[in-house]
Amino acid sequence: MSINLRDTDGMVGMRVAGRLAAELLDYLTPHICPGITTNQIDRLAEDYTTRVQGAVSAPLHYAPQGHTPYPKSICTSVNHQVCHGIPNDKPLKGGDILNVDVTLIKDGWHGDTSRMFMVGHVSIAARRLCRLSFEAMWKGILQVRAGACLGDVGHAIQIYAEGHGLSVVREYCGHGIGRNFHEDPQVLHYGKAGTGELLQAGMTLTIEPMLNAGRRDVRSMSDGWTIVTKDHSLSAQWEHTVLVTDTGYEVLTLSANSPDVPAFVLSPAKT
Ligand code: MF3
Ligand code: CO
Ligand code: CO
Questions:
Q1: How many H-runs (helices) and E-runs (strands) does the chain carry?
Q2: Domain ranges within the chain, ordered by starting residue
Q3: pTM of the model
Q4: How far is the CA of 175 from the centre of ligand 2 (A)?
């Protein structure tokens, strides 16, 4: 495994790309309501990324080994879809929960972030799943600092998720990110504290847990991309790109309208 470290220029580039990715989600947010199709959201994203931000959508035509080229500019995963949902012409309806995952390239650097959106009036169980998966991502982020290890991140997420009766998807993980969309290391969202690769200052990683309300098992659809829960239970995911620092972390995918961080991030002693 070879892990790239950012120098000062790389950090600047990653900060810019990260902020733009978060600002793209800010831009999309008011459009996400009952009746809009995920294809319409995809078009809005592509236009904003290219015309306003002067950036490139990383998912469009992305073709990792064993996959057909990804056909759209963003991923939209609705309800029991876990990740990599392909935008289509079906209108969103009240009660849906939706992950919008955006990745853009600016000056060669990648910013990758996703949020959950609740469409119209959403059930209490779905709201709880969205909130707990947001908190689980932050539990992982709080572990990040030079000298910690990847197992600490995965463990914190797993303990929090399973402690609230949710399951952690195993087949997909966070990743190193920089000039490449997906780099080493793999960032598992489960594991054992004190194990795995040591974090070093200058690493840039994503943390993007997928949590299911039911069983953790997933399967992939015949479109070659969309991942769904086997038991059709709801699934939720949030994603940030973070920089490892000597004293902790810097979240690179923040913007003016990023959701407020959980209270335990500001006063970790309380939980
Ligand atoms: N953005 C996803 C991630 O967080 C990857 C999507 S790959 C795509 O890693 F091709 F589906 F866009
Ligand atoms: Co990612
Ligand atoms: Co992503």
A1: 5, 15
A2: 8-266
A3: 0.98
A4: 6
